[in-house]
Amino acid sequence: MYEAKDEEATKQFAFLLGQAAKAGDVVVLTGDLGAGKTTFSKGIAEGLGITQMIKSPTYTIIREYTQGRLPFYHMDVYRITTGYDDLGLDDYFEGDGLTVVEWGNQLGKWLPEDYLEVIIKKDPNDVAKRIIALAPHGEKGSALSVKLMKAWSEN
Ligand SMILES: Nc1ncnc2c1ncn2[C@@H]1O[C@H](COP(=O)(O)OP(=O)(O)O)[C@@H](O)[C@H]1O
Ligand SMILES: [Mg+2]
């Protein structure tokens, strides 16, 4: 578990994830509206070396950025409740980039077998603070989690 005292701390943690990620990694971001999923995604993008502005994909569902060390596939599936098959999710999950899915826990059976879930919670006593937990599912998710915790401890 990681306590991010402010937005910048959340981005710093996410930055390390962006640096640690490998092609084919999938990160699922879980947390309420305003928890910081898009903010976290911005940190990841920076860690990949993307300098372009990252916009929330709430309306576009999927945005792709190719400027960084790896292709970055940024999704928000909040508004999708059906028709997941039309999105061609597996092509992203099994692709050559890093896929980050806000509200990905909604995907149910459409989730990939292997991913790292990042759970972001607000602190009821501090508006600027977030509690961030890592829940790896599968080998790649675990490897990414271990690498991230190591980078964090050396940071
Ligand atoms: N420690 C923090 N980490 C992330 N966001 C924070 C933090 N403290 C305050 N915020 C604010 O919370 C909001 C998070 O919004 P956003 O990242 O769009 O959330 P989500 O994508 O989960 O709906 C932003 O306005 C951000 O400035
Ligand atoms: Mg968002």
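^ adenosine-5'-diphosphate complex. The chain has a mean pLDDT of 95. The pocket of adenosine-5'-diphosphate (ligand 1) is lined by residues 4, 6-7, 10, 31, 33-39, 56, 102, 128-130 (CB under 6 Å).
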